[in-house]
Amino acid sequence: MQIPMDAVLLRIHASERDRFEHQPFHEAVVMKAREAGLKGATVLRGVIGYGHDSRIHTAKILDLSIDLPLVIEIIDDEANITAFLPTLDGMMEFGLVTLEKVRVIRYGAPKDAA
After folding, report:
1. Which end of the chain is more exposed for a tag (fewer CB within 10 A), N or C?
2. What is the dotted CATH code of the domain comprising 6-103?
3. C-alpha span between 65 and 48 (Å, rounded)
4. What is the pLDDT along the chain (114 residues), one digit of tens a residue?
């Protein structure tokens, strides 16, 4: 699979408790991105953060939080990311979504690698 050298990083800030159609939101987004043929997606789990409500979400052992912050990152060329945005919009009630132009310097192993 090839990824263009100039790409766009779609970053979605969410929470572990967020849901879409009875499944975790982050899982639904990754599955939709894969169905759309986007080049790659990763979900990152935060240890502490807050959002629009200013409530701190933390992974401290005493809190045993099940509502930690998540960041979903998806990368592809600008046209494919732009085409995916309406799908994402239909999945989100609220949240923060950012787009960032990135330069890819390496993706995967060389074809002659054993």
Report:
1. C
2. 3.30.70.120
3. 10
4. 566 588 999 999 998 889 999 999 999 999 999 999 999 999 999 877 777 676 666 656 555 556 788 999 999 999 999 999 999 999 998 889 999 999 888 766 665 655
Integer Cα distance of 100 and 57 in angstroms: 25
Query: The tokens of 112 are what?
Result: 């002659």
Q: What is the pTM of this model?
A: 0.82
* Amino acid making up residue 80: N
* CA dist., res. 74 & res. 86, Å (int): 15
Residue 43 bridge partners (DSSP): 72
